[in-house]
Amino acid sequence: MIAKVILGTMNNARKLVSIVEKIPYDAELCSGRYVVNAKSMLGVLSMPEFEVGELHIHTDEEIECSNILEKLLEKGTNAESDSICGSDENFR
User: Fold this and answer.
1) What does the pLDDT average to over 14-39?
2) What angle do CA 4, 43, 69 make, to 5 degrees?
3) What CA–CA distance (Å, rounded) separates 36 from 23?
4) What are phi and psi of 9, to 5 degrees?
């Protein structure tokens, strides 16, 4: 699953990490050539381009993708509601 996320503030970064750390899959936050562990607050805060990024979660489970996207939307950290599920072939 790949989802575009908006951070911008430490509060949004905290929200993102709190959502991602509860899921049982590996997750990375990517921005340009930088990739950090999305379950790590220190990693997320160390992103050089902190405003936006792509959240890569390693699952193809449609129901799980929907649940994660719903949580991101609730917290206001998802940039696009048409995020991609099941197409992160390059990240396995």
Assistant:
1) 93
2) 30
3) 16
4) -130, 160
Q: In what order do the strands lie in the sheet with 27-31?
A: 2-6, 52-57, 27-31, 34-37
CB-based contacts of 33: which residues, under 8 Å, 6+ apart?
A: none
Q: In sequence order, what are the beta bridge partners of 55? A: 3, 29
14 in helix, strand or coil? helix
Residue entry with tokens 């206001």:
76
6 CB-near residues (< 8 Å, 6+ apart) = 12, 51, 52, 76, 77, 78, 79
* Sign of the C-alpha dihedral computed for residues 72, 17, 59 and 51 taken in this order: positive
Per-residue pLDDT reduced to its tens digit, 29-76: 998 899 999 999 999 998 887 788 899 999 888 888 888 888 888 887
Whole-prediction pTM value? 0.78
pLDDT for the residue numbered 90: 43
